[in-house]
Write a structure and sequence with these properties.
The structure is a single chain. It contains four helices and seven strands; from the N terminus they run E-H-E-H-E-E-H-E-H-E-E. The chain is of the alpha+beta class. It has one domain: Cyclic phosphodiesterase (Cyclic Phosphodiesterase, Chain: A). Strands 1, 2, 3, 4, 5, 6 and 7 form a seven-stranded antiparallel sheet that branches. Strand 3 and strand 4 form a beta hairpin.
Length: about 180
């Protein structure tokens, strides 16, 4: 069973992502994470399998002192069925936390998907996946019509099991004061 660990977004940032999801859903562009049972989030790591208790311990061990992030207009992972996303610009602390998170996963014998490791990861908030070629231009236009840059915070760190998505563990991020 695949698993992902992600950072869910604060209310302001969530609102912007949900508006884009709604527009993409109304136009039939791919599938939004909401349609797959996920909240708006930035993925920190993906695992093809693993012990849920060990993965939950990674959620608990994640140390964040500055959960600031910014979502900026959009990008695409191209392939057989493209994905549209917002770029997630993370605080230096979140980037450090990610590197420590992946190192801890490796130390515990877990193999994180290499595309989510330091030096390879494109931090992003997914807007739509499995986009058909005929719908891709429509998806791009929807993304272009919402060029707003959003600054916000990560609120929780979550462990998800896929699909349909099921939240296994969630914990609030306690930023340093």
């Amino acid at each position: 069973m695949p698993y992902g660990i992600g950072l869910t977004l604060d209310e302001q940032t969530n609102r912007t992502v949900l508006l884009l999801w709604k527009a993409l859903e109304a136009s039939g562009v791919g599938r939004t994470p909401g349609q797959l049972g996920l909240p708006p989030h930035v993925t920190f790591s993906l695992f093809a399998d693993g012990d849920p208790a060990v993965l939950a311990a990674l959620v608990d061990a994640l140390e964040v002192t500055d959960p600031f992030l910014k979502l900026i207009p959009f990008g695409a992972f191209l392939g057989e069925k493209p994905t549209l996303y917002l770029h997630a610009v993370l605080s230096p602390d979140l980037v450090r936390a990610h590197a420590a998170h992946v190192a801890l996963a490796h130390a515990r014998g877990l193999s994180c998907n290499r595309l989510y490791t330091p030096g390879n990861i494109v931090f992003h908030c997914t807007l739509a996946v499995e986009i058909e070629d005929k719908d891709f231009a429509t998806g791009v236009e929807i993304c272009r019509s919402h060029p707003e840059t959003v600054e916000g915070r990560a609120e929780t760190v979550d462990l998800f099991e896929f699909f349909p998505a099921r939240r296994i563990r969630t914990r609030p991020i306690q930023a340093a004061r």
